[in-house]
Amino acid sequence: MKKEKSNIILIGMPGTGKSTVGVILAKMIAKRYLDTDILLQNIEKRSLQDIVDKEGHMALREVEQRVLLGIQCRNHIVATGGSAAYSESAMLHLKSIGIIVFLHADLPTLNRRIHNYETRGLAKRPDQSFQDLFDERLVLYEKYADITVQSSNLTQDQVCDAIVGQLP
Predict the structure, then answer these.
(1) Domain ranges for the chain
(2) Are 44 and 63 in contact (CB under 8 A)?
(3) Strand-pair partners of 8
(4) Which residues 6+ apart lie within 8 Å of 73 measured at CB?
C-alpha cells in the first residue's frame, strides 16, 4: 500500500524561515504544524545546544534521526532542523509521507539573519564555518527537494504563496 503524501516537509539552513513559514503556511492551507526541533527538545528534555555541548554534534544528528524516523503524521506542515538532510534514512522516510520543500536563502541573507551561530545548537563540527556548513548542506537539500523556493528576497507570506503555487 502506497503511503499518502499529505504532509509538506520544510528543509533548509538555519535562518531560512522554516519555523515561521511553517506556522503561516499551516494557517493558510488548514494543516497542523510540527516543528521537529521542538519535538526533539521535548523528547530529550533539553536544548539542542545542551546536546551539542555535552555529547557533540554527531550525537545531535543521531537523536534527530531517531526523532524524524518516528514521525507518523498526516496533513501537517513539518519544519525540520537544518541538519535533517544528513540522515538519508530520515529523509527517505519524510519523502515517503510528504512533499519536501527546500527553502533556499543565499549565504549573505543567512549571514544577516543568523546572529547566534556559535550558540544556536547546530549539528556542526566545532571548527566549521557557516560558509562550510552552507556548502556541505546545499548539496543534500538539493538532493532531497521536490520543490525549491528561492526565499532570500521574499517575505514570509510570499514564500508561502510560492510553496502553494508549486504544490501538485
Answers:
(1) 12-163
(2) yes
(3) 77, 99
(4) 7, 32, 34, 97
User: Cα–Cα distance between 114 and 107 in angstroms, integer?
Assistant: 10
Helix (H, G, I), strand (E, B) or coil at 107: helix
Domain spanning 12-163: CATH 3.40.50.800: no
Beta-bridge mates of residue 11: 102
pLDDT per residue, tens digit, the chain (168 aa), is 455 689 999 999 998 999 999 999 999 999 999 999 999 999 999 999 899 889 998 999 999 999 999 999 999 999 999 899 999 999 999 999 999 999 999 999 998 888 755 555 566 777 888 889 999 999 999 999 999 999 999 999 999 999 999 998
Residues 57, 137 contacting (CB under 8 angstroms)? no
